[in-house]
């Protein structure tokens, strides 16, 4: 555009005027460039200032969003934690129930085994622990009754029960050869 304007001015003027017109046009172009540079600087300053303001605004919005997100995530995490803890408690209860059932089944198996062993021993004629304990108690009672009889007044009148007499050992002579 500046070229067209310069061409028009040059066609209608003389050589001296042409040279002055060229200088004026060059000066105008130079001044237009300086004006453009100045406007660009001012606008860039505004843009930089607006950019800085926009950046600060974005940081503030990001901070607000982070707080909301942390709050929301915190609530979700707490809900998730509560759900996990309740599931873990349920699993613990199931494990305890299974452990108790296994223990009960083991006790039943033990009783069945003991009953079968006791029946096998009884069929072989081997007395059980209870039979031996009953017999020991009867022997103890009998021993106590005998001791009471020995110390009773009737036993004293008739004399003490016969004591085993000592026999003299019989000597045998050795066979003669």
Rg value = 63 Å
H/I helix tally: 4
How helix-rich are the residues, as a percent range?
Answer: over 70%
**H and E order:** HHHH
What class do helices, strands and sheet pairing give? mainly alpha
The number of strands is 0
Uncertain residue segments: none
State the separation between the terminal residues, measured CA to CA: 172 Å
How would you briefly describe this protein structure?
The chain has 177 residues and is mainly α.
Topology:
Elements: H1 2-11, H2 15-123, H3 129-150, H4 153-158
Helix pairs in contact: 1-2
Care to describe what's here?
The longest helix has 109 residues, at 15-123. The protein has helices spanning 2-11, 15-123, 129-150, 153-158. The protein is rod-shaped, with a radius of gyration of 63 Å. The protein has 177 residues and is mostly helical. The protein has one domain.
Keywords, separated by commas or semicolons:
177 residues, mainly alpha, 83% helix, 0% strand
